[in-house]
Write a structure and sequence with these properties.
This protein has no helices and 10 strands. It has strands spanning 2-7, 10-13, 18-26, 33-39, 46-52, 57-59, 67-72, 77-82, 91-97, 107-112. The chain starts with a strand and ends with a strand.
Amino acid sequence: QVQLVESGGGLVQAGGSLRLSCVASGSIFSIDAMGWYRQAPGKQRKFVARITRDSSTIYADSVKGRFIMSRDSAKNTVYLQMNNLKPEDTAVYYCNVFGTAFWGQGTQVTVSS
């Protein structure tokens, strides 16, 4: 079992920045990759970014060049630095043990125009 707790969401104006954090606990030794996803109101949850154990990253096209995912293994934490935010980035953001059913509770990000 793995427990994930996200934080760092909030309300920001378009063009602003936020940094999300996700702290993992439990059976974390088995984690190969972590992901961030987001779900806008009335829409399906979508992939945002993924980071592997060796810090290799991939991003959705919609956030490429604006978002940066990183990890601090000593703190069992992954981050999502979000820059140049747009209103269409408004969503609940979830972290996930990539490819598993382990999800955090989500953190709301709202970008005003």
